[in-house]
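PROTEIN DESIGN WORKSHEET
SECTION A - STRUCTURE
LENGTH: 209
TOKENS:
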């Protein structure tokens, strides 16, 4: 399972992309970030995550997991014991064949009884089960509608708060940009003053020599 699922903007309703940012620039930035990540960042747990607890699976559960991982068929029930033995030969009947015949007879008798009960009560049980499932479905659908309304309410409130703070955020953003521009201008001017000072020192040294 990937450890990095998605990335969400913090202020999606009022943030606007920079003028120089386009689809190609965004794709290039994502490719640059992906190139800096290790190849196993989607599968290797973060080093800050605690280690997984030890497995408490029983040997039987571990064997079942291995069977599923190897895509092996399930052979949990031996159905041969319910098959009628072949008594067509003239050989004497053995005790094993008698036990198998008794098992098959008992299985068929129980199956006939279950089929009779299903024929008598199965329809009503099926209708009652369907009614219960429909009731559960209505409850789940109501929860879904309530959850959607709650999510829409949260998103609506989030948008209103961000829209209310738009002016302040834009003012702070413009102030930051102006401040950064002034810092750059000051650094350029400092560089010019430093260059003039060096030139004056060189000229003074030449005149003194």
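SECTION B - SEQUENCE
RESIDUE ASSIGNMENT:
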């Amino acid at each position: 399972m990937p450890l990095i699922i998605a990335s969400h903007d913090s202020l999606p309703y009022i943030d606007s992309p920079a003028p120089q940012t386009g689809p190609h620039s965004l794709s290039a930035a994502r490719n640059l970030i992906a190139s800096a990540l290790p190849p196993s960042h989607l599968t290797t747990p973060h080093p800050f995550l605690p280690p997984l607890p030890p497995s408490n699976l029983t040997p039987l559960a571990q064997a079942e997991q291995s069977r599923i991982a190897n895509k092996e068929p399930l052979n949990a029930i031996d159905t041969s014991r319910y098959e009628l033995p072949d008594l067509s030969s003239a050989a004497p009947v053995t005790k094993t064949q008698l036990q198998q015949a008794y098992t098959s007879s008992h299985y068929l008798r129980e199956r006939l009884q279950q089929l009779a009960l299903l024929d008598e009560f199965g329809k009503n049980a099926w209708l009652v089960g369907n009614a219960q499932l429909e009731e559960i479905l209505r409850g789940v659908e109501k929860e879904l509608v309530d959850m959607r309304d709650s999510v829409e309410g949260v998103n609506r409130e989030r948008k209103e708060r961000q829209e209310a703070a738009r002016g302040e955020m834009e003012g702070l953003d413009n102030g930051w940009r102006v401040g950064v521009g002034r810092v750059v201008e000051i650094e350029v001017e400092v560089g010019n003053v430093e260059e003039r000072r060096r030139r004056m020192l060189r000229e003074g040294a030449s005149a003194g020599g």
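SECTION C - NOTES
The two ends are 75 Å apart (CA to CA).
The CA atoms of residues 34 and 154 lie 32 Å apart.
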